[in-house]
Amino acid sequence: MSKGHILIIDDEDQLRKLLSRLLALEGYTMHEAPNVRAAQKLLEKEEIRVVLSDVKLPDGNGVELVQTIRTRYPEIETIVLTAYGNIADGVQAIKNGAFDYITKGDDNNRILPLVSKAMDKAVLQFRIRDLEKKIGGKYNFGNILGTSPEIKAAISLAEKVAPADITVLLLGETGAGKEVFAQAIHQGSNRRQQPFVAVNCSAFGKEILESELFGHTAGAFTGAMKDKKGFFEEARGGTIFLDEIGEMAIELQAKILRVLETQEFYKVGESKPTKTDVRIIAATNRNLEQEITAGHFRADLFYRLSAFQISLPSLNERKKDIPLLADWFMQQVAPKMNKRITGMTPAFLQALQQHSWKGNIRELRNIIERAVILTDTDTLDTAALPFDFQQGLSDDNPASLRLADMEKRHIIRVLAHVKGNKTKAAELMDIGLTTLYNKIKEYNITAL
């Protein structure tokens, strides 16, 4: 298995081939080019990870080529081959972005370790690039599902504000997808290459949250054994998402306001401010104007946070999107459970659309996951839904008037009532236990 692809650029055939053979013996896949033009074709065509280039080339300069490669292929590492005693070229090459330089004629003990280190760094950089692409693809606006006017309006606003680098306040019920929107706004901004840090403000007490947000110095409080970076420092250059900011203690709100106004903060136990450069996206399920009236939220912080507000619709406000979301969750969950599920019955979808979704999209995902676990066929049916969904089925649906469907639902309800005790269920329905087992098998009722 190849250790990676290396390109050697040198117009001296003998030296180029000697280096190529040497590195090939170490397990690298080698490519050769006598000039810049040929090298550029190979860079476009092959999966080059490391370049070894002479300084003086027939149609260019190796030091300048370093800068070109760094601009067009930032993950590739370049090592420059300089003439004996010409250190200035090597120093300038490093300034242009070269990994290092080596003087022609140096022994193999220097070349091989240098190439190995450059290859390790390049491979890591390519992995990071691929990971960033996957993350960016997962959280871009195109992957926010829904065709309802309500969700499309929210997406449109988020797309417009993403590159503007201003504070955004996301409003909506718990589970409506606020963090997904925050991630998409970050990926659509000029900060996409920098960290995205999400903080649930309701998950920490006041003292702990302050330390988590701003960090602390050693000895700042009992148990602070060493200096600790806070989330604002971790997010430097990127985006920090303050979820459930309405739950934050009012004393801490003043410190968030300071970050917004001055882009600096104080670590716990430190008197010198720390500079930062972050974009803040905040979210809440509370009515902050009512919280201000009640004295629980600072009006000045609200006005700074709400420079641009986006209200996210609840799932109950966009029920048109339920079939699309349910199908997507089904396709995501089923393979993880090693199940091949191809669809949902009309009755199953009807039950989903008639349900009151207090937990929003998060609750829908959980319900689909549960249904996939309980289903033994290739289709999700109402038998895999919780009891409260069964009660929500409309009796004026023509399909529900079939005797078999009504009997099936009745058995499911009774089994749910007795928590799966089949003997008790048979007694309540005044039928034999064997008859009940036959009905369960006939209607493909999954045990509750």
Automatic annotation (TrEMBL):
Keyword DNA damage: no
Alphabetically ordered keywords of this record: ATP-binding, Nucleotide-binding, Phosphoprotein, Transcription, Transcription regulation
All copies of domain Sigma-54 factor interaction, residue ranges: 144-373
Gene3D superfamilies, per the entry: 1.10.8.60, 3.40.50.2300, Homeodomain-like, P-loop containing nucleotide triphosphate hydrolases
Residue numbers bearing the 4-aspartylphosphate modification: 54
A Pfam family the protein falls into: HTH_8
Superkingdom as given in the UniProt entry: Bacteria
Protein name, as recorded: Sigma-54 dependent transcriptional regulator
